[in-house]
Structure formats: C-alpha cells, structure tokens
Amino acid sequence: MWDERYATDDYVYGTEPNDFLREQVGLIGEPPKKVLCLADGEGRNGVYLAKLGHRVLSVDASPVGLRKATRLAERENVPLETLVADLTEHTFAAGAFDAVVSIFCHVAEAGRPHLHRQVARTLKPGGMLILEAYTPAQVPRDTGGPDTPDRTPTAAELEAAFADFEILSSREFDRQVIEGRGHSGLGAVVQFIARKP
C-alpha cells in the first residue's frame, strides 16, 4: 500500500518537516546527535534533522518511499542513512541513538508493544523520544491518517508503555495538520515527549 502511495513524482506529505518536530527539535541537543526516524516515508523529517547536522537513520517499510528520501537528501546535499524494515518485528541495537523521532508512525496495535520496547532499548540513557500520531478520534475524519482505530495510539497507551521514562509532555488535542496532500486539515493527535532515565 505504501509503495503504491509513494509511487508518484510529488511528495505526498510535502518536503517540509512536521511542525511539532520543528518546535521540539532543541530537545535532541546540539548536533551531531544520532537520531532514529521511525516511519520516515519520503524523508521530510529525516532530511530536516540531517540539515541541522544530526546523523540520521530513516526507517520505513516502503523502499519506494525511502528512495524518494534519498533523492531529497541528495537535493539538500546532506547524508541520510536509510533502512527498509517492518517496525513490528525489527530489532534495533541497544543504546544506539540519542533520540527517536516518531512522526505519524502508525502500526497495528498488536505490533506496538514490540516497537515501544525497541524504542526504549535503542535509546541511550538520557535519550529523547519525540512522538506525534493520530488518535482513534481521527479515524472518521477525511484529513489523513489510518482508516482503522487499531493503528492509532492514545496518550494513556504511551504513558503506560514508557512509564519508566521521565514523561515531559503527553496530550491529546485537535490541531491543523497541513503536510502535503496526505495530511490536510484538522487532526486529532497525541503529542508525547519522554526522556530515558
């Protein structure tokens, strides 16, 4: 499905970074930090972080999307490492990253506990998780995101999954999400920031 969605010349979610990431990027620390970008698709967030001087690994299930991410990085003249992987199964190295950025990474509910454990595992002590996703309230809207609630987390789920972390912010609310033609209007989102002890 994602290969088909990304098989177009334009960038479905645009080439600009997510607003929430742009607001919170200072929490990652002074570059260069090692940053893992989950479900980075066509690379807009990974390339943004690379332009700031961070060393980025962009992971996605779609090789078509990541080829576009590579092209975007080349266009912006920054290095970007990419990895095609199923986030519900992939194992990341322990203590490998200073930050994990998860922007609209929507995997099935059954696979999320594995992904959450991997995020906790791969972050270094003191490492930051910066996450924005659609919540179940988004599903009936026609402004982007999954069409089933199974793929959308809640703040309560994230707070439970990262209960051992220092939770800096956790909130659900509606905001305008304007990112290419893929996200276009009022969205029901959860924004979550946590630091590994």
TrEMBL record:
Residues 35-127 form the Methyltransferase domain. The keyword Methyltransferase applies. This is SAM-dependent methyltransferase. PANTHER family: PUTATIVE (AFU_ORTHOLOGUE AFUA_2G14390)-RELATED (PTHR43861:SF3), TRANS-ACONITATE 2-METHYLTRANSFERASE-RELATED (PTHR43861). Signal peptide: none annotated. It comes from the Bacteria. Keywords: Methyltransferase, Transferase. One of its GO terms (biological process) is methylation. Coiled coil: none annotated. One of its GO terms (molecular function) is methyltransferase activity. The keyword Repeat does not apply.
